[in-house]
Amino acid sequence: MTPIARNLLFVLALFSISPLIAQIVPCNGGFAGSFPCNGYDLLSNLPKSTLSNEDGSDIWGWTDTTTNKEYALITFEDKTCFVDVTDPVNPLYLGELPSNAGSNFWRDIKVYNNHAYIVADNVGSHGMQVFDLTRLRNVSNPPQIFSADNVLTDVGSCHNIAINEATGFAYLVGCNTFSGGPHFVDLSDPANPVSAGGYAADGYTHDAQIVIYNGPDIEHVGKEIMIASNENEIVILDVSNKTAVVKLSAISYTDVGYTHQGWLSDDHRYFYLGDETDEIDFGFNTRGLVFDFANLDSPSFLSSFTGNSNAIDHNYYTKGNKLYQASYTAGLRILDISNPSNVTEIGFFDTHPESNNTTFFGAWSVYPYFASGNIIISDIDRGLFVIKESGTTLNTQESRAFDFMMYPNPATENTMIRAGENMLINKVEVFDILGKKVLEHTNINEILFQLHVTKLPSGMYVVKINEATSQKLIVN
């Protein structure tokens, strides 16, 4: 094949994988194109037909701290797809990682230290796939079919995976091990995960969040705490010692359908829970529940909140004072959680305009943690959506390069940031590995700035200067 022919094929490939929508579609008059909305614009939609012939499921994001590029990792019944969303108006489908053992509706993914970890349910000997995400930097002829870098075969089928980035442990849940309870996996060598035991005493766990606790319960600050959604109750575990897990408490609630998934507030005080079948079982409008975790040994129910339709809520994620609720046929709902006793909807983007019925179509999950502010949604029927809050600035690439040095790195207490020649440091932002902003300093206007990191948990962070250039920082 001649070089001209190869170039022509590459151009044709780019056109073949371009999204249906190639420009920003603002939310005007309650619609962004054909999609109902309130306060959120449509940046792009990469349809399911481009990515897979099967239904979609989970989604997560990865930010390459070396290149500052943002990627959507979206799963389908038969594969995991990788999409460069750095230019959110023109996402680029880079390729796919096929299933390790056939097709099934449930395939979940999380990220740690530049590696993706993928599990699947009801597919026999699938195991946990490991994929080195830095391979996405060098895709010259997309879309490419990838193979896994490794597979953990100590498990076969698993419903879900949660990762605590602060400790480097994965928690596989709903597996064929430990009665469906959490199966611990050590990711200290990200390419070569090692099983580290598990916990079976409370039976099947459907989903979980694990944190280094930094909430109001002083007795447990600094411990590794797991919040497990266990079908009919929430179970709180101290998993600091993997060989001696301590159950702190469990709590249920009235009108239990299926205790599905939830997420802590940033201050670790409140837990927001979605029950997946209460709309079906009891005829409720979309119902979410709030629990007060001021005392981890004795949590309490605080309040509930309801939506405007009877759509089924699925996955919840919090960021600041906002709760992002993927609600199947009602799409993505955004709620104000500044007052946990009075949670109210403040915006939405409906990826399933046909109806808000109590059925399993539409938005499966959401990832709201990119530093850019762009939000990615996985839709069972319509593939990948990229949206952004209306009225916010769209940056498809970094502002002009800002040269700076940062030392020491790794840091324990402080790191010094020195601006390059003829430059001043005006703004410093620090993001954790999920893209959550954890520190911000403004109006600095200095050549040299001392960044205090003593209050940050150990781990990897991204330091962004003047909203332009970023570097990775390790905190010990």
Automatic annotation (TrEMBL):
Keywords: Hydrolase, Protease, Signal. Residues 1-22 form the signal peptide. It comes from the Bacteria. One of its GO terms (molecular function) is peptidase activity. InterPro entries: Choice_anch_B (IPR027589), LVIVD (IPR013211), Secre_tail (IPR026444). Pfam families: LVIVD (PF08309), Por_Secre_tail (PF18962). The keyword Protease applies. Residues 406-475 form the Secretion system C-terminal sorting domain. GO terms for biological process: proteolysis. The keyword Membrane does not apply. GO terms for cellular component: extracellular region. PANTHER family: REGULATORY P DOMAIN-CONTAINING PROTEIN (PTHR38787). This is Regulatory P domain of the subtilisin-like proprotein convertases and other protease. It comes from Kordia algicida OT-1. The lineage of its organism: Bacteria, Pseudomonadati, Bacteroidota, Flavobacteriia, Flavobacteriales.
